[in-house]
Amino acid sequence: MNLVMIVIIMVVTNEGQISVDFLLGISIFLLTFGFVIQFIPGLFLSTSGGGSLDSVVYRTANILTEDPGWWQNNTQNGTNWEMHTDIISRIGLAADATPKTRQTRTPRMLNMAKIEQMKLNEAVLTTKLGLYYKISGAQVNYSYNITIKPIGNPMTINGSNGSIPFGDPLPSSQDVYKITRLVLVERGNIASFRADELTANLTNNNAAMVNISGNQSDVIIQITDFNITNPNASFDNAKLNNKPLTIPDNYIAYNRTNISDFNNFPIPVTLENNTDTLRLIFNKSLFNESANTLELDFNNITFNPNGSPVNYSDRVEPLYEPATLVVEAWS
């Protein structure tokens, strides 16, 4: 404005009047300038609302990976919303060892129990994640897909193997706004044993015994350092409290070799080298007794016939697997 005033003063005639040509020119300039200011922001926004969807997927991914969530009523509150799904304030998946702090010290480390509870009522999930917009006071929901995809290693949640999707199927002919976050997903607990640490069934040296007490999250047992001398060595099946288990309803079997990562196998699982690693993931719903005896049946692999069965709880430790969390949304 100061510049305009200076120009006006400079073009004042000797009679103290402003040139009509100048007034016309500056008026056209100001009108054009105002139009450009109003029009330019529209160049960067999609007519379908894409600008807002970019921010929606960004915000949703950040909340899910860096926030533990929150619940509250008139007297209590906490971040363990997965145990209070009827009074959720917001949904987050980040692990949290101190459920009264409203925040987590472990962003991008996702809690398995929270992931399992993501299968909420669709309206609750949409509202608590803010996956909607308002038109004349009415709520219009975005379509969305949230998927947790394992990287390399096996991952199961509630007996489901592979990627873990929530929301809608992806459209085939529509603009989709997407963001990806690298995360670590809590897989429950794992107990690792060398084969020579396991003791055999009293009547079968090819069967290894493991004691498991109390209720559990998914039970993961990993066995390494097999003494394989026979080309027909294999893991054949598992029994719990003398009852045969089945794949994939009760558990899933993986094997890793020195030239490949973990791969899912039907039984029997062939074991070819001493460097093979066998990983067995058992559904947590199986362990509802106060004391459980797990029998792992092998072929052409013998175990120590003397001593007591190993205890799962003596070796158990948290297991986190690398994964990606992908948030996609469209309208």
Sum up the structure in keywords.
seven-stranded mixed sheet, ten-stranded mixed sheet, 19% helix, Jelly Rolls, 2 domains, disordered N terminus, 331 residues, alpha+beta
Model description:
It is a single chain. The longest helix is centred in the N-terminal third of the chain and has 20 residues. The relative contact order is 0.16. Strands 4, 5, 8, 11, 12, 15, 18, 19, 21 and 24 form a 10-stranded mixed beta sheet that branches. Strands 13, 14, 16, 17, 20, 22 and 23 form a 7-stranded mixed beta sheet that branches. The two termini are 43 Å apart. This protein is 19% helix and 40% strand. It has 331 residues and is an alpha+beta fold. The chain folds into 2 domains: 147 residues, no CATH class; 131 residues, Jelly Rolls, CATH 2.60.120.
Topology of this structure?
Elements: H1 2-10, H2 20-39, H3 50-66, E1 69-72, E2 77-78, E3 88-91, E4 94-95, E5 106-110, H4 112-116, H5 122-128, E6 132-135, E7 138-141, E8 143-150, E9 156-157, E10 160-161, E11 164-167, E12 177-194, E13 199-201, E14 204-213, E15 219-224, E16 234-240, E17 243-244, E18 251-257, E19 260-265, E20 269-270, E21 277-282, E22 291-299, E23 310-311, H6 312-315, E24 317-330
Share of helical residues: 10-25%
Number of strands: 24
**Roughly what fraction of the amino acids lie in strands?**
35-45%
Helical stretch tally: 6
H/E element string?
A: HHHEEEEEHHEEEEEEEEEEEEEEEEEEHE
Low-confidence stretches: 1-11, 41-50
Structural class designation? alpha+beta
Q: Give the overall pLDDT as a whole number.
A: 84
